[in-house]
Design a protein that fits this description.
This protein is an alpha+beta fold. It has one domain: Ribosomal Protein S5, domain 2 (2-Layer Sandwich), CATH 3.30.230.10. The protein contains four helices and four strands, in the order αβββαβαα. The chain has a four-stranded mixed sheet, with helices on both faces. Helix 2 links the parallel strand 3 and strand 4.
């Protein structure tokens, strides 16, 4: 994930974890809150605790989750800080496909996806 999309300062991560709304599903928890960046942009942080395994397993889980976030980034509404907390093990989150499916479901519940303005506004209108 490119540097401009990361939550780099510890205070930003702590603020999102303590004051942000939480959505949990299986081995992942997403905490999010609006940020004050201009122009609006999303920033992401991924955390895996020691219960997720040793360093190699934690790093693998974080790579998998970051890859899923990278794929979802263009579809999300801008202007939020998101922290993904991994509380499961490699057995519960074996690949990026599972992480992508979980994050999609959670972010849809949080209403963080951009609306398809033209498709949903005129469902019966076909463009030519």
């Amino acid at each position: 994930m490119e540097r401009s999309l990361r939550l780099r300062r510890g205070g930003d991560v702590r603020a999102a974890r303590s004051r942000g709304r939480a959505i949990a599903d299986g081995p992942l928890v997403v905490r999010f809150m609006p940020n004050a960046s201009a122009p609006p942009a999303n920033r992401y942080g991924v955390i895996a605790g020691r219960k997720s395994g040793k360093a190699v397993q934690r790093n693998r889980l974080k790579r998998i989750t970051r890859e899923a976030l990278r794929a979802l980034h263009p579809e999300l509404r801008p202007g939020f800080d998101l922290v993904v907390i991994i509380r499961g093990t490699v057995d519960e989150l074996p690949g990026s496909h599972e992480a992508h499916a979980l994050l999609t479901r959670m972010l849809r519940r949080a209403k963080l996806f951009q609306e398809q303005a033209t498709a949903s506004a005129n469902p019966g209108h076909a463009e030519s």
